[in-house]
Structures are given as structure tokens and as C-alpha cells.
Amino acid sequence: MLIPRSAILALVSSSLALGAPGLRRSDTSRPHRCVVPSSNGTADDTPAVQKVFARCAKDSVVVFKEGVDYNIFTPVSVTNLSNVEIQVNGNLHLPQSIAEVQKVVNRTNRVTYADGQHWFTFQGPKIDYIGSSDVNNGWINSYGQAWWDANPVNGTGIDSRPHLMSFKTTNGSLKYFKSRKPIAWNVQVEGDDIEVSHAFIDAESTGSFPFNTDGFDVTGTNVRITDSVIYNGDDAIAVQSGSHNVVFERNTIGYQSHGMSIGSLGQSQDEFANVSNIHFEDVTVIDAVYGARFKSWMGGQGLAKNITWKNIRVYNVTFPIFVTQSYLNQGSSQTQLGDGQTTGRVNNASVVMEDFSWTDFTGTINTFRPGDGSCASDPCWYDVGLPNLKHTEAVIIECNTEKSCKNFALRNIQLIPQSMEAPTAVCINATSALNPNLGFDCRNGTFVPS
Ligand SMILES: *[C@@H]1O[C@H](CO)[C@@H](O)[C@H](O)[C@H]1NC(C)=O
Ligand SMILES: *[C@@H]1O[C@H](CO)[C@@H](O)[C@H](O)[C@H]1NC(C)=O
Ligand SMILES: *[C@@H]1O[C@H](CO)[C@@H](O)[C@H](O)[C@H]1NC(C)=O
Ligand SMILES: *[C@@H]1O[C@H](CO)[C@@H](O)[C@H](O)[C@H]1NC(C)=O
Ligand SMILES: *[C@@H]1O[C@H](CO)[C@@H](O)[C@H](O)[C@H]1NC(C)=O
Ligand SMILES: *[C@@H]1O[C@H](CO)[C@@H](O)[C@H](O)[C@H]1NC(C)=O
Ligand SMILES: *[C@@H]1O[C@H](CO)[C@@H](O)[C@H](O)[C@H]1NC(C)=O
Ligand SMILES: *[C@@H]1O[C@H](CO)[C@@H](O)[C@H](O)[C@H]1NC(C)=O
Ligand SMILES: *[C@@H]1O[C@H](CO)[C@@H](O)[C@H](O)[C@H]1NC(C)=O
Ligand SMILES: *[C@@H]1O[C@H](CO)[C@@H](O)[C@H](O)[C@H]1NC(C)=O
Ligand SMILES: *[C@@H]1O[C@H](CO)[C@@H](O)[C@H](O)[C@H]1NC(C)=O
User: Fold this and answer.
1) Where is the signal peptide (predicted)?
2) Which residue lies with its CA nearest to atom 9 of ligand 6?
3) CATH of residue 391
4) Which of 26, 218, 291, 328 is packed most tightly, with the most Cβ within 10 A?
């Protein structure tokens, strides 16, 4: 089911209305107010934007005016901000032509998606990006539809796609961030003490699948993401290696989302991938492939500890609870190992999972049209290694070894397949010795809470 845009807008405006006042710093600490001029659609406004940021990189408020359209036809990169509020009240536009964007990305010789040219780069301490609280203003329009539709049959996204934003700060915030039809990845959030709230990401497609339209990719400590709506075609949030104390709550995610993810962890086999104290609570998940998801690479190393998903409502979700410790990326053989190696990944280690809980899940499992448009192979990437799927699975837990999953606990899992059959589980290697309070029988078949 596609949620009508009007319903999403209603959802977002009600969550906007409920929003607590922002964490604004007193104006006295930011005495400079700098308004960004616009060419009114006649030119690339990026040079003017850069000029304003160069002048107002410190203790300033930089304002994109309401009612004004800004052409951001080349990337904006400001890496020396300090105590700056960025008020985005106008609407920003990337080029509508794929070639214009690719020209820029190709100049940097970064053409594979693992690389990461960002269209907006904001870095430095105390950055507050504050979009407009009015749903019609403060959008970044990236015209991603053309990019999604240009993807060939069974492709996984065309080359030279930029990421939308790198937001790297300490003691900063991102509020009312609004992204319409991002080309691919939305925001890389990096740093410490960052508050993201009232974001609205809309990557719904009227044509082909919006590959890699991740909502928030997080690497940081003390990061909170709340009161947001993320409709997209990849992870709504991906908590990456090196993240600690991350909270994701009161959010709605959906469309062809790949859910609330930890990972992927351990792609690089000789580095430790650690995350800890990650909490997801009070989230509605609609039509997504995954709800609560953990993914790590076999042969990776590290520790994921104290991770919880609580009070999660799912509607028409294919895999509400999913753990894999043998993850691989679809399609792109060059990303399997890193360093140009494409074969021979050794299964000699696991990213160990410890103290995981899933509590109070309700809703429906997608029985009738499982999966989504991201399937570009046979079997689909999301079915790999799961040959006996019934699509009635409330829980899939696949541990790489008998020692790699410890202290898992599932409580009050009330998930029902749309077919009204009994919910089932696939469970591998979550042994009772290490998981005495698992909460169900770790075996394949009917899901039996214990
Ligand atoms: C369930 O989600 C799938 C995949 O997004 C979609 O194709 C299907 O129409 C949805 N079904 C219902 C009943 O909403
Ligand atoms: C753009 O339009 C605004 C409002 O009409 C006007 O004040 C401004 O001078 C225009 N800017 C340019 C560069 O034409
Ligand atoms: C920030 O960098 C810009 C461009 O490199 C430079 O012009 C400006 O002076 C710098 N500002 C501060 C406060 O360092
Ligand atoms: C950019 O590079 C990609 C990958 O090599 C290529 O497919 C595309 O045509 C190039 N586009 C432009 C405008 O240079
Ligand atoms: C953020 O600000 C608080 C209060 O001013 C301070 O204690 C903390 O060290 C700051 N965090 C960072 C990462 O700078
Ligand atoms: C596993 O093998 C890879 C590739 O040979 C190596 O880089 C990695 O350090 C090994 N891991 C362990 C835990 O031995
Ligand atoms: C990751 O955690 C393990 C186990 O606690 C520890 O030995 C290792 O040093 C940590 N690595 C990093 C990079 O934090
Ligand atoms: C587990 O993580 C949560 C935050 O997600 C934190 O409040 C709690 O103190 C952590 N527990 C331990 C034992 O560290
Ligand atoms: C796309 O992939 C599917 C599944 O592997 C295959 O059946 C189909 O032939 C492929 N289509 C093209 C045009 O390659
Ligand atoms: C459970 O199902 C998984 C995935 O289909 C399979 O790999 C595994 O062998 C099964 N375990 C048992 C004991 O049948
Ligand atoms: C379960 O763990 C054992 C080692 O502890 C491993 O040999 C086996 O392959 C694992 N099973 C699956 C299905 O991954």
C-alpha cells in the first residue's frame, strides 16, 4: 500500500506541531546574521552560498530566505564552521539533469557508490541546521526520480551518485531537515552530541526502485533521532561501526524501507567494528522489507553490545525481526572484501552480538507481496541463505557460530502473517547456553514463545 502524500503530510505536520522548541542557542552567541542572496533561478547560487559561509563561518546565523528558490548546482562544502545556525527557510534545488551532477562527481574520480562525494558538507563544532517548520518550505529537492528510472533492469543504481549531506559536528542539531527525491543516501551524521528531530525524507518513487536512499547513516556518540518521517528505499537508519549511545524514537518509517539497522559491521576483516548502547523505541514501520535489523559480515570482527528495539508497530513488513551475521552486498562484487579483492572471503571470525532485546512488537507480516523492488537477482539478496522461507516469519535470527550471539531476549512479540497462518521463526545457533532468556524456541518452524 502506498500511503497517499496527503496522509504523510498530515502525519508530518502533526509531529511538527508536537515538537518541543528547538535547542537554539541564544542569539548573543551568534551576533552575525548573514542572508544568502539568490539569483532567482537564473544561475548557480553555490558561489554566493560559499561566499556567505566564508564570511560567516563563526558565531553566525546563515539564512536561506523563505519564499526564495536557490539553485545548488554545484556542491556546497564548508568545513570550518564554528557555532553557526543554518536556517533553511527557502527551497534548495540540485540540477535536474543527471549529466550535470555526474560531471561534478566524475571530476573527483569517485564513481562507485562506496565512495562518497557529498553535495552538502557541513563540518565543525556547534552547527544547528534548522529547516522551516512549514511543510512547503525548507526542502532540498534532488530530482532523484530520473536517476532511479535510469537504472537498468537488474542494476542496483547507476554510477556517480552523490550522497546528499555530510553533517559532522559536536553539540549540534539537525531539525526539520526535508529531503524530496534524494538521488541516493541522505545524511551521514558524524560526531558527538547531535540531536536530529522532525526530519522528513520522501524518497517515494513513481517509477523504478530508489536504490540506496538511506535516511541517516550514523557514526557517533550521543546521537538522537526523533519525531521524524522517513519514506525511502534502504535503511531508514544505519548505525555504523564506532557508534555508541544512539537513540531512535517516535519515528515513522516506510515505503520500501530496509528498516532500523545496525550495520553493516565487519566488512573490513582486519578492523574491529564496535557499537554499543543503541536504542530504538516507539516506531511505526509501514510496507518495509525489514523492521529491526542487524547485519554483519561473516569473517568480520568486533562487538555489538546492549542494543534494544522496543514498542515497534509494523504493518505489512516482510521481515519484522532479522539478524544476519553473514551479510553480503548485492550486485557489487567489488565491495565484498574491500581493497579490490573480489573472492576468497574467509569465514574466520564474527562480529559478536551481546545483550540484544526485542520487546513489544505488534502488527502484520507481509505474506502476499514480500520483498520489494530492490530484488535484482535470483534468489533476491534478502532471501539469500534462507531457502525455506514461508514469508510467515516473525523472527529470523542467523548466528554465524554457536558463540557469536549472547543474551538475546524477545518479549511480547505479537506479529501475525497477513495470511492468518501461525507466525514462524528461522533460528540458527542462538544457543540456550548463551541465551537462557531468549523467549522462544530457537528452531525453524512455528514461533513458540516460552
Ligand atoms: C505490502 O508491501 C508491498 C511491498 O512494499 C506492496 O507491494 C504491497 O502492495 C503492500 N500490501 C499491502 C496490503 O499494503
Ligand atoms: C530576486 O528576487 C527578489 C524578490 O523578488 C529580489 O529582491 C532580488 O533582488 C532578486 N535577485 C536577483 C539577483 O535578481
Ligand atoms: C573558513 O574557510 C573559508 C574558505 O576556505 C575562509 O575564507 C574563511 O576565512 C574561513 N573562516 C574561518 C572563521 O576560519
Ligand atoms: C560519469 O562517470 C560514469 C561512470 O564512469 C559514466 O557512466 C557517466 O557517463 C559519466 N558522466 C559524465 C557526465 O561524465
Ligand atoms: C557539549 O556541550 C556540553 C555542555 O556545554 C559539554 O559538556 C560537552 O563536553 C560538549 N560536547 C562536545 C563533544 O563538545
Ligand atoms: C581472517 O582472515 C582475514 C583475511 O585473511 C584476515 O585479514 C583477518 O585478520 C582474519 N581474522 C582473524 C580473526 O584471524
Ligand atoms: C572493540 O571491542 C573489543 C571488545 O571489547 C575491544 O577489544 C576492542 O579494542 C574494541 N575496538 C575498538 C576499535 O573500539
Ligand atoms: C544500554 O543502553 C542504553 C541506551 O540505549 C542505556 O540507557 C543503558 O544505560 C545501557 N546499559 C548499560 C548496562 O550500559
Ligand atoms: C533480471 O534478473 C532476473 C532474476 O535473476 C532474471 O530472471 C531476468 O532475466 C533478469 N533480466 C535481465 C534483463 O537481465
Ligand atoms: C533452518 O533454516 C535455515 C534457513 O532456511 C537453514 O539454513 C537451516 O539449516 C535450518 N535448520 C534446521 C535445523 O533445519
Ligand atoms: C552454527 O555454528 C557452527 C559453529 O559453532 C557452524 O559450524 C555452523 O555453520 C553454524 N550454522 C549455520 C547454519 O550457520
Assistant:
1) 1-19
2) 270
3) 2.160.20.10
4) 291
- Residue with the smallest CA separation from ligand 8 atom 9 is 277
Cα of 301 vs centre of ligand 7, distance in Å, is 9
For ligand 3, the distance from its centroid to the CA atom of residue 81, given in whole angstroms, is: 8
**Which residue in 118, 198, 258, 391 is the catalytic one?**
258
* Residue 316's pLDDT band (cuts 50, 70, 90): very high
Query: Does 329 map to a domain?
Result: yes
pLDDT over 90 (residue 196): yes
Report the nearest-CA residue for atom 8 of ligand 3.
54
Asked, for residue 275, whether it belongs to a domain, the answer is yes
Distance CA 164, CA 222 (A): 23
Q: Annotated catalytic, 234?
A: yes
Domain span at residue 250 reads: 235-450
> pTM above 0.85?
yes
For 94-146, how does the pLDDT look when each residue is reduced to its tens digit (9 = 90+)?
999 999 999 998 887 655 544 568 999 999 999 999 999 999 999 999 999 99
Q: Is 67 contained in some domain?
A: no
Share of the chain above pLDDT 90, in %: 82
Binding pocket residue ranges, ligand 6, CB within 6 Å: 269-270, 299, 301, 346, 348-349
Is the residue at 313 inside a domain? yes
pLDDT at 326: 86
Domains: count for the chain: 1
Distance 184 CA to ligand 4 centre (A): 16
